[in-house]
């Protein structure tokens, strides 16, 4: 194998490890998602707590989806609508976690 092939393999392995670390826990997946949404300060400084209301209200649906809702204590404010982005849904897919905005409803 030539040097270019080895470099590609090393780069792919490194990206895979980084992706795994950033999505290996629900909190890390949520922080990564908020960071990528464009709110790095909120991603790094906000505490993450269980969203008791949504977890109780949607308990069956979340169990089927293998998901849990979380709330940011210092949520970011969306620039366009001035909406507060506080509630997020974190789903587990095998050993990998993904996060998405869940809304305030």
TrEMBL record:
Q: Which domain of life is it from?
A: Bacteria
What is this protein's record name? Answer: Uncharacterized protein
